[in-house]
Amino acid sequence: MSGSIVQYYGSQHSKCGYCAGANCSLSHGMHAYRLDCKDYQDLIDRGWRRCGHYCYKLRNQETCCPCYTIKCNGLEFKLSKSNKRILRRINRFLRDGKRDSKPEAGDGDGEAEADDAIGAPEVTASEPQPQLPDKSPTVINVDHVASLATAQKKPTMQATAPAGEAPTLGSNKSAAPISNKPCKKAKQMRLDRRRAKLGDSASISTKSVSQEKTLRDFLNTDSEANKHRLKLRLIHVYDDEFRRTLPQSFALYKKYQISIHNDPPKNQDAYKDHLQATPLKNEKPRDGPAMGYGSFHQQYWLDDKLIAVGVIDILPGCVSSVYFFYDPDYSFLSLGTYGSLREIEFVQSLAENVPSLKYYYMGFYIHSCPKMRYKGKLSPSYLLCPETYEWLLLTDVIRAKLDEHKYQRLNEDPAARDVNEFLKEHLDEVMMLLDAKTCTNYRHYRQASARGCLRCRYHY
Question: Where is this region: Disordered (predicted)?
Answer without folding.
Answer: 151-190
